[in-house]
Amino acid sequence: MGIDMTQVGLPDLSILTWGLAALPVIVVLTLMMGFKMSGARAGVIAWLVALAVAYFTFGGGIEVVASGTAKGLWTTIFVLFIIWSSMYMYNIVDLTGSFKVIAATFTKLTNGNKMLQLLILGWAFPTFVQGVCGFGVPVAVATPLLIGLGFSPITAVVTTLLGHSWGITFGSLGASYSVLLSLSPVEAAPMAFWGSIFIAFGGVITGFCILHNYGKGAALREGTVAVLFLSIVMGLALIATCFVSPNVGCFVAGGVGLIAGSFVLPKFKAYRPAADAPPLKEDPEVAGKSFIDAFSAYIILIVVVFAVYLIAPVKTFLDQFQLGLPFMETVTSFGYAQEAAAKYSALKILTTPGTLIVVSCILAAAYYKSKGFLPQGAFKTAWERTLNQSLGATATIISMTMMAVLMTASGLTTYLAYGIAVATGSLFPLLSPFIGILGGFVTSSGTSSNILFTGLQYEVATILSISATIILAAQTTGSSLSNSFSPGNAALGAGVSGLSGQEGEILKVTLVYNIVQGLLVGILAFALIGLGMGL
């Protein structure tokens, strides 16, 4: 398969140039996972490598590298706002003792089964939140909940990173799915159908990855029934919803999963307590405290998010207030261009997730105070904790995002994808998900990955005369699942769990699962295309 790279403004394809384009990614993974270097330091080194490759190999002059770096710095504000606000909210809730009440309630609902608690709050709940508000919020909200239930920070982070990722295509009110339709001529109905099939398949894999991470073989033996039940329930809910309204597919799937997981699954024979099991002991510290009171901060958050995102006139009005930086058009010496922007990556001040978390935190704090739950000096204590917990993640996210956006602005990321497409030929469907994973890794966003590579995937499918719809379904599934394996999301998870500086350990775990997920999705795409489906 031949592609004229001059048409896309990139150097001719060669193994050496492809290796140089991949060098920033190789460097950051090697330093973080091999040498256990902090994400902040590894990110700075990888950014310098990306800068050198962009300047000397891809013809990115001073304007290109300066603009790409500045765009990266600006983009971090959005993510950091989420981290700092969610950590402050977590600390306020923690100081009220509410996590003990939440833990006691879910212990009772699940008959004390920790694995069921993990699947409900680490998989179904993040899926539900992702349905309306993505951008890392499911990880930021669910990770502290799991830690509060007694799970180790690393287990909590990996679980929520995996648990929220599968539904991203049809989450955030369908933002990622909408990109597929807007950037390719595929029809909406078949795209929604095949997309939901692939995403539901990704959900099954995700459930088993969560089990394996939690307890390897023992957890797989105990939890297979639970994962099959939840994946079937959420998968069918997703597919059925996508026939009617794909934009709320993830929201409906997560909601159904939450209800089924909390009230149906614990009644299964495999998860009922033994007849001679002693009754669960009630913690005297939570006696008389209401679950509604304890969970009120997250109930308020859900209500605020839904009120803003689902009431169209409210969102339209609030979205008017935006803050963005102007950037000029940049063009490399090969002709790879980035359009000028009057408000690049505009921050929607009143509807950005960080703002919604702040509003929810204020309302929750007022409610807790009225109930007498907040101890003296809680606001100051929460701020001091947040400061200590979030500084490391802040440095990591800044450096990683500078590297990622610079790679995108100078064409390195696109060049990597074209190289994969040309090298694989008829085997392309097997590796199609990995292009989505590459985009998600570099941008920490499934939507951004689809923006980067929808056109490329469609073009390759057309050249090979295979189903573009199935190839795009594989692309968007890969881009969704990649959110468990991206430095930005790992830093976010580390920041809200007290693991700042250990992002490499998180990525080391999720890398293995992402490779398995990508291979299985690729095999599905290859098999379906081999059967002539999707045309």
TrEMBL record:
The chain crosses the membrane at residues 15-32, 44-66, 72-90, 118-139, 145-163, 192-211, 223-240, 291-312, 349-368, 389-409, 415-439, 451-474, 511-531. It is found in: Cell membrane. GO terms for molecular function: lactate transmembrane transporter activity; solute:proton symporter activity. One of its GO terms (cellular component) is plasma membrane. InterPro entries: Lactate_perm (IPR003804). It is a multi-pass membrane protein. The keyword Cell membrane applies. Pfam families: Lactate_perm. Keywords: Cell membrane, Membrane, Transmembrane, Transmembrane helix, Transport. Uptake of L-lactate across the membrane. Can also transport D-lactate and glycolate. PANTHER family: GLYCOLATE PERMEASE GLCA-RELATED, L-LACTATE PERMEASE. Belongs to the lactate permease family. This is L-lactate permease.
